[in-house]
Amino acid sequence: MDWNFRSAGEMAAALRVGEVSSVELTEAAIAGIERDEGVVNAICVPDFDRARVAARLADEVFERGEDRPLLGIPVTVKESYNMAGLPTTWGMPQYRDFVPAEDAVQVSRLKAAGAVVLGKTNVPLGLQDIQSFNDIYGTTNNPWDHARTAGGSSGGSAAALACGFGALSIGSDLAGSLRTPAHFCGVHAHKPTLGLAANRGMVPPSDPALPVDLDLAVVGPMARTAGDLTLLLDVMAGPDPMTSGVAYRVTLPPARHERLSDFRVLVLDEHPLIPTGAAVRAGVNRVADALADGGAHVERHSPLLPDLAESGTLYTQLLFSGSVARFPVEAYEQLRTRAAGLSADDRSLDAARLRGMVLTHRDWIAVNTRRELHRHGWRELFAEFDAVVCPITPTPAFPHDHNPDLLERRLDIDGVEYPYFDQLVWAGLPTMSGLPATAIPAGRSPEGLPVGVQLIGPMYEDRTTLRLAELLEPRIGGFQPPM
């Protein structure tokens, strides 16, 4: 395997002993992008000139006998992060020319760790899709099947990793935006515990880059191996130095176990609000078999599991409650009228989306109170289990669907159509309660598409699912380059 597909850990080891230089790694990555980018369209904003300068500086640092966690390693950054000198548009044409003056805190941490940033990766309009396309940069294609999506909203980052365009990338996750692209493209991603990694500068171009606490969204690492996720999370984790970072530092607890045989795992493959497609169910079962073969204690049911149907409904309401803040008053009033016309017996996710969009503050507090009860339920479950294995979405990557009315789109699950956004309930399972979740490759569908699963763990015990992912990697195949 050429350097472009080596892990960041392997690159770091080779750099430290002089087997390869950062300039060589960077030039190889740039050559790969220039050769293969046209059919994938993952790198929407290249930054090759500055990358070459950074690589030369990294080699000079090595020559002085100094070291940093990511020194000399080529990486990419999701377009939605502010990066001084490059546009940040979130795919919105009106901000085509917006160039921030300062780096996002996570871009600063990448650079301080010595990483060489190759450029920025593509996103959907406003980051609000499970695909990555927009009128500025076009469509990112799945490296395994160009007629299918790479996922969203970190789809450009996942596709770039699958193609060898850098060893690491940073993305974000509100509705599976790290985990779904990883699942669709056959790479790894980690949604950290809510608030673990500072998000300042990962902000719409119309907003000031303030250190705000987000309700559901996180920033996190993407990589081709589980070990590389840990390497990058260690760089990203920590509070914003403008706020709680003045007083606090992060010390994550170690993984609960080091051996696979010591893990207690709950495996789920059914959700009451949406079916699980056969290909994804097979991926979950492959992981369950690997766990059992490794001596782990595996269960399929637990009375401690919080109610999945209520979880999906609460998550949907919380997610969509934040989606209408900038709507014109007239449009918001139309939504209120539609919501008032819903039957009290309508418990569909479509109804939950509409109700969520018009939640009053009083209503939101009631929903949040139910969320806190779910969080407590998860704490009780994780006293008996170390991790939960479940789908990320019900299907592998689906064909491109650019219908501008997202609520009219449909998802085909084994020949039956379902509302497009219903697929978010699996991704929302850890998101609603702020839990960490690690996306790992779990084989291929009969059509040869990647299939991933997520490992959900207890809050602030991110190293537990990351270690479990690392132990599972050799047993279920891990990353493989697109054929």
Automatic annotation (TrEMBL):
<dbReference type="InterPro" id="IPR052739">
    <property type="entry name" value="FAAH2"/>
</dbReference>
<dbReference type="InterPro" id="IPR020556">
    <property type="entry name" value="Amidase_CS"/>
</dbReference>
<dbReference type="InterPro" id="IPR023631">
    <property type="entry name" value="Amidase_dom"/>
</dbReference>
<dbReference type="Pfam" id="PF01425">
    <property type="entry name" value="Amidase"/>
</dbReference>
<feature type="domain" description="Amidase">
    <location>
        <begin position="24"/>
        <end position="466"/>
    </location>
</feature>
<dbReference type="InterPro" id="IPR036928">
    <property type="entry name" value="AS_sf"/>
</dbReference>
<dbReference type="GO" id="GO:0004040">
    <property type="term" value="F:amidase activity"/>
</dbReference>
<keyword id="KW-0378">Hydrolase</keyword>
<protein>
    <submittedName>
        <fullName>Amidase</fullName>
        <ecNumber>3.5.1.4</ecNumber>
    </submittedName>
</protein>
